[in-house]
Amino acid sequence: xxxxxxxxxxxxxxxxxxxxxxxxxxxxxxxxxxxxxxxxxxxxxxxxxxxxxxxxxxxxxxxxxxxxxxxxxxxxxxxxxxxxxxxxxxxxxxxxxxxxxxxxxxxxxxxxxxxxxxxxxxxxxxxxxxxxxxxxxxxxxxxxxxxxxxxxxxxxxxxxxxxxxxxxxxxxxxxxxxxxxxxxxxxxxxxxxxxxxxxxxxxxxxxxxxxxxxxxxxxxxxxxxxxxxxxxxxxxxxxxxxxxxxxxxxxxxxxxxxxxxxxxxxxxxxxxxxxxxxxxxxxxxxxxxxxxxxxxxxxxxxxxxxxxxxxxxxxxxxxxxxxxxxxxxxxxxxxxxxxxxxxxxxxxxxxxxxxxxxx
Length: 359
Hints:
The radius of gyration is 21 Å and the shape is globular. It folds into two domains: 2-68 and 272-355, Phosphorylase Kinase, domain 1; 72-265, Transferase(Phosphotransferase), domain 1, CATH 1.10.510.10. It is built from eleven helices and nine strands. The chain is α+β, with helices and mostly antiparallel strands.
């Protein structure tokens, strides 16, 4: 959908700014999904979720800013180092189960739980990117029947089949697949047959996920979380309780395991600091760049500003060249840019008001 940049507010708050790629803006479905992401983030809370700071889903470009969480993604950590030991993975899983439970209490599903969407921060794992989240009670859908939206290796069978009635079990499946990767560095199914072959394996109840290499202490729980029937999967409170028991089975208390997760998985070298030249952020550094006054003369390097904060998956589309984003999140002056098409948003609001007579 877009690129994520490191941004600085006028009061020097650090944020991650997600900007939709311009060539996608003509697609009303993308705009609706992005607006739904903003709507979802306003309802999500808790220490395991990157909080929303500001957004403009109908802007040109459309963007949102969330709390900047320094650290590697779980995917980066495992690929650059090694799979994590069982006690740490069990504690990370318990913390994520706790965070997901709060997400579900808000009436939401994440729907794209995977190692790339988990940042290992100073205080443990944090969930990011609710771009595919939908309200569980909504009666309109942004994905056409039969369309596959997500990362196949971490998608539940019901998601691959495009079933409408997807519940918390879909996120529980994604959490299990993520924990298997954290423990082994492997995925659940072989991709030797390409995407069609992979999807066929996932939806076939007779093809079991590959749990070889998973420690015996946690294999039964992960196997239950990966059950083909979503109603057979354990609830998140049960998952959290059983993972905590595994994490503390060596006699180490929960509070110490939590400390170890942050100490042993947080990579401080990934943190982007505000350059000294931006101690008092200017309103719009892009103006200086356009006028020829930017570049190396302003002291801000490409390593600090104007590059994606976390590289997303390869979409097959070349991203826009690195550029410095405005340090303010709202233009203070009127703009001559073309007015964005918001007819779809008007229609959506009318539908919501028609359904809610109390508004």
